[in-house]
Design goal:
Layout lengths: L1 H6 L9 H18 L2 H17 L3 H17 L3 H18 L3 H11 L4
Helix pairs in contact: 2-3, 3-4, 3-5, 4-5, 5-6
């Protein structure tokens, strides 16, 4: 399973965004079919990062929120925190940084 998870970590700065989106969607479908919450969470985060690179910040926020909920419900603290950091980057780009501060602080106190 580790190889499958590595394969979805598409660097949108090195790959054409369209290819990154196709790979991310394929990974998401595969992890959903496998019933792998960690893989699904990572795939959603990858799609969110790609959306952010494409300037689709609201879409990126929605995908990060979905990935974050999954990370919380399946006790995946590293992915939970990674999503919060990426959400904060989106909010900064949108000029909404103050509303994100509390969300990052909520995550900091958790064991991980």
């Amino acid at each position: 399973m580790a190889d499958a998870q590595v394969s979805i970590m598409v660097n949108p700065h090195r790959v054409r965004p369209g290819a990154a989106l196709r790979a991310g969607r394929a990974a998401l479908r595969a992890f959903e079919e496998l019933g792998d919450p960690r893989g699904k969470c990572a795939a959603l985060r990858g799609l969110a990062v790609t959306a952010r690179v494409l300037g689709r910040l609201e879409t990126a926020l929605d995908l990060h929120a979905e990935s974050h909920r999954l990370a919380v419900s399946h006790h995946l603290p590293l992915l939970e925190f990674a999503n919060r950091v990426s959400e904060a980057e989106c909010r900064l780009a949108l000029g909404r940084a103050p509303e994100q501060t509390g969300a990052v602080e909520e995550t900091e106190g958790r064991p991980g």
